[in-house]
Model the fold of this input.
Amino acid sequence: MTGAVNVVRRLFDAVERRDAEAVLACYAADVEIREAAVLPYGGTWRGHDGALAHAQAFLAAWDPFQGSAEIKLDPQFWGDDSGRVCVLFRHRALNPTMGTRLDAPEVSIYQVYGGKVVRSQMFHADSAAVAQFLADAQPDATTTERAQS
Done:
């Protein structure tokens, strides 16, 4: 297992624990995070301020629908000596009010340099279905304003 894979593994562990400090510790100061624009936390986020804003927007969207079982990502990691890491994982949610579930595959690609993630991009198997789950679950929600630096 490469050092880059270990960095991304620590990132996923921190995300599952909802540990913002540990998440930020995995990111370079000039990190760039990209998510599908259709999502309320979508877009391009830059730097630690952007990473923190991205995490807050993600949590605002998903925390109401993710208990301890749904937080588990079940990641599988692949990496090489160039610092590129690919992760296949599950995105899960439960809307107890409506009784609907989301269990969708997602892939993310990371670039690690100097022991820190400098770039990440998430690819949902069906971004529209993920966005629709949130829209159905939170009909009065508005798109989160993005604090990008």
